[in-house]
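Deviations from the work plan: none for this task. Representative record:
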Amino acid sequence: MWNADIVTTPPRGLRERKKQATREALREAALRLAVERGPDQVRVEDIAEAAGVSPRTYNNYFASREQAIVSAVTADREARIAAAVAARPAGVRLADAVTDAVVEQYTNTGEREHKALLLITTQAALRDAFLDTAAGIEPPLTAVIAERLDDAEAHTARVLAASVAAAVRIALEGWLRPAGKAEAAESFAAGGLVVPSGSLPDQLRTALAPLAPAFDAAEQHTQP
Amino acid sequence: MWNADIVTTPPRGLRERKKQATREALREAALRLAVERGPDQVRVEDIAEAAGVSPRTYNNYFASREQAIVSAVTADREARIAAAVAARPAGVRLADAVTDAVVEQYTNTGEREHKALLLITTQAALRDAFLDTAAGIEPPLTAVIAERLDDAEAHTARVLAASVAAAVRIALEGWLRPAGKAEAAESFAAGGLVVPSGSLPDQLRTALAPLAPAFDAAEQHTQP
DNA sequence: GCGTAAAGTTGCGTGCACGCAAGTTTACTG
DNA sequence: CAGTAAACTTGCGTGCACGCAACTTTACGC
């Protein structure tokens, strides 16, 4: 959705600001109501009303009820990750820059955020919506990786970014799976291999580690 | 969903066979009606009626109308890919085994399949549903990769499989994007980098290539 | 074979996503 | 400053996804 620049530059027109305000109001309302009444006791109509817009407008902003709730926690983490990568000095290994940026942005967990995460784990639909947010880091990551690599290897950047997104998703999945054992057993029917779930940073690093050689190879193609 | 074994072993009970038959009937009906009338002139009710089940039963099988249509083309490609990987001799490089298997299973395009693909490209919702099928290769791929690698590195297998799925998705995207230029320009707003779209096999190999070093490294950890 | 438990199907009801077209606000140009 | 084009909001209507509970079919043990 957004690239790193937009994070730093404030919205230009009054139009944009109102839009952001509405989005924020909806996020806020969705999360507050979900916490107050429980996730499935809140209807789109309620959220829209609390934010002062029509239900139809509500889903000009969010494609699903879950997305609104989750986005209050996620905020603009995607852009922050991209910015964090861009902020690393050009000398460091790209694989490290990415890994550190991801871990950093997922561990800055405020009080309110942590509370909301607890809520999310309680309902399958919310967990899924939360996992889907991982895919959102792909576009900004693509841009920032392409910048470090040569632009000639744009497709490589895209694949690497998508792989990172997939790995992050897996890490998050493994992290909040303990809440749902049945599914894990089912999806891994092939071999009963279960991973002892550690802390989130550990999960992230473990998931990203296998991709490091791919980053290294890509990097060497540009600066041999 | 399925692992490689299930492909070869026929369904055991009468129960399973009826289920498969219903699924097949729905797939078939969905595709036929979509071709006859055009994709958006077919309602779930019609598909269900043509297959001889209730509308409610229809979406015990498929979560969306698009999924049913697309699945007629996709069939059980996921399982075939996994089987193809498993079929390669143990000596070959894992990266090559996977790449070749993927390319092979995506290029065996029959007449009817090719016709349906043309239909899919015409509608955005169908294209999206088709792209989503790429994610389906992750579970069987995870199983078969884990088998080649040491089972101790199960998490690595999972990440690699997910990365392959992501890469395949990107390849497919790039392949059928020419039908929708506007979106491409928008999603790549950061830098106007466009990839000249070649044939599907080329796209697949190009997308999978950056992952090869990761496969090599994983393989070397098990057999140094 | 018979009874029982599990799996699958169906009707019904509810809330929702989304297309469409009209009305309203913002931004841009001369 | 006025006029116009583009963006955003909203009401309305349609089809759909999905939970729930009753009913039917299959599988399994005694």
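Residues 13-15, 18, 43-45, 55-56, 59, 63-65 of chain A lie near DNA strand C (CB under 10 Å from a C1').
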